[in-house]
């Protein structure tokens, strides 16, 4: 079978633990691109961050960001798909998170909003340190989320709830599912100490499906590679769903194939096996 589109998660998948793309992976992806395969970065990160790594691997394909809430051309301002969060739902979500002692982080395509620099916002700040000034992600420390929500009512794509209280996270996640005002929001985790919240119907799987249809590519011609809960929907959609060797066991169990880890060129090895050598 000739695969025409490969969608790859970033953290824990395309990137090694130093947040780098290995030389072997770059070379393998270039060979796949030269064959006409569309290489799609599909990440929970915001578009502005994902675009940097899409540039590193040289792909021209659109980028899927914010867990599928935003699809945009890499080298232009043309948005292919966007689904923003309902402002009333965001307000309720912020209220519920604070009740459990969590400080949520809100995201647009290019900006991170947080009450303090910690957890996910701290990660973005650290990533900024290695980037040229023009590529750095905007981080705004705010005192009033109501004002942020109002000013960005047609721009908020995702919220992240993150913290050390894992039991509290589980309880909050259950309460969201049981609360009418927000029960229909999409929720997925990218790490064990967080969960990410998007508007109803948003997922990486739906985004990959949308993009495949956009290019008139069938699911049988799609490979999706990931490592965590928010990758499950795209792994299940793909004709060939691949879990990383470092993936959670429940991700490996639903995958068609398990490749090597992100530290050992798992993405490159999978593409070599199923795209370059078949």
UniProtKB/TrEMBL annotation:
Q: Sorted alphabetically, which InterPro entries does this protein's record hold?
A: Cof, HAD-like_sf, HAD-SF_hydro_IIB, HAD_sf
Name of the protein in its database record: Phosphoglycolate phosphatase
Native species: Fonticella tunisiensis
- Per its UniProt record, what Pfam families does this chain match? Hydrolase_3
The GO molecular function terms of this record are: magnesium ion binding; phosphatase activity
The cross-references to PANTHER family, in alphabetical order and at most eight, read: HAD SUPERFAMILY HYDROLASE-LIKE, TYPE 3, PHOSPHOSERINE PHOSPHATASE
Any one GO cellular component localisation term in the record? cytosol
Q: Which domain of life is it from?
A: Bacteria
């Amino acid at each position: 079978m000739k695969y025409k589109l490969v969608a790859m998660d970033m953290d824990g998948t395309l990137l090694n633990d130093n947040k780098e793309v290995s030389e072997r992976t770059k070379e393998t992806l270039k060979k796949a691109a030269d064959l006409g395969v569309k290489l799609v970065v599909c990440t929970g990160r915001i578009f502005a961050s994902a675009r940097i790594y899409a540039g590193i691997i040289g792909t021209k394909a659109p980028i899927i960001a914010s867990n599928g809430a935003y699809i945009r051309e890499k080298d232009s301002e043309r948005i292919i798909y966007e689904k923003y969060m309902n402002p009333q739902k965001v307000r309720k979500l912020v209220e519920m998170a604070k009740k459990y002692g969590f400080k949520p982080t809100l995201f647009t395509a290019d900006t991170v909003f947080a009450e303090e620099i910690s957890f996910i916002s701290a990660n973005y700040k650290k990533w900024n340190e290695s980037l040229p000034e023009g590529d750095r992600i905007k981080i705004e420390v705010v005192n009033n989320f109501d004002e942020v929500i109002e000013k960005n009512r047609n721009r908020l794509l995702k919220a992240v709830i993150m913290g050390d209280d894992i039991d509290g996270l589980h309880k909050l996640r259950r309460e969201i599912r049981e609360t009418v005002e927000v029960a229909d929001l999409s929720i997925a985790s990218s790490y064990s100490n967080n969960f990410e919240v998007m508007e109803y119907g948003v997922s990486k799987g739906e985004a990959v499906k949308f993009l495949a249809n956009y290019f008139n590519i069938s699911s049988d011609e799609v490979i999706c590679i990931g490592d965590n809960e928010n990758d499950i929907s795209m792994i299940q959609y793909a004709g060939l769903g691949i879990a990383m060797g470092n993936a959670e066991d429940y991700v490996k169990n639903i995958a068609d194939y398990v490749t090597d880890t992100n530290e050992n060129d798992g993405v490159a090895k999978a593409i070599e096996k199923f795209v370059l050598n078949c």
